[in-house]
Amino acid sequence: MAIPLALIVNELVTNVVKHVGPPCEIRLRPEVGNALKLTIADTGKGPPQDQPRLGLGMRIVDAVCTQLGARVETKRVSRGYMIELTVPLAQR
């Protein structure tokens, strides 16, 4: 699970650097119900709402999220744009 998550973080942070610039906030924390929540936020406005995420990088992020069974939420917040991934942890 670490490698797919690292790939996602790399792509999303690269997008921040490419389109917005610093600062960028990255949080990874346990979530109730045996899951992890990964949040990446920046101070940009995000992509236009009427424009689908068609770039290769975001298609890779979507594919890896599907592989992990993760739920993806994008939000505009008061200080910028945020992407949250909720990744279920495998039962042991």
3D architecture notes:
- It is globular and about 35 Å long.
- It has a single domain (2-88), classed as Heat Shock Protein 90, CATH 3.30.565.10.
- The chain is of the alpha+beta class and 92 residues long.
- Strand 3 (71-77) and strand 4 form a beta hairpin.
- The protein starts with a helix and ends with a strand.
- The chain has a four-stranded antiparallel β-sheet, covered by helices on one side.
- The longest helix is centred in the N-terminal third of the chain and has 18 residues, at 2-19.
- The protein has two helices and four strands, in the order αββαββ.
- 34% of the residues lie in helices and 35% in strands.
- The protein has helices at 2-19, 56-68, and strands spanning 24-31, 35-42, 71-77, 80-88.
Please specify the SSE layout and strand pairing.
Layout: H1 2-19, E1 24-31, E2 35-42, H2 56-68, E3 71-77, E4 80-88
Helix pairs in contact: 1-2
CATH superfamily: Histidine kinase-like ATPase, C-terminal domain
Q: How much beta, percentage-wise?
A: 25-35%
- Mean pLDDT over the full residue set: 84
Total strands: the figure is: 4
Tell me the major beta sheet.
4 strands, antiparallel
Number of helices: 2
Q: Given the C-alpha coordinates, what overall shape results?
A: globular
Known CATH architecture: 2-Layer Sandwich
Q: Might you state the CATH topology name?
A: Heat Shock Protein 90
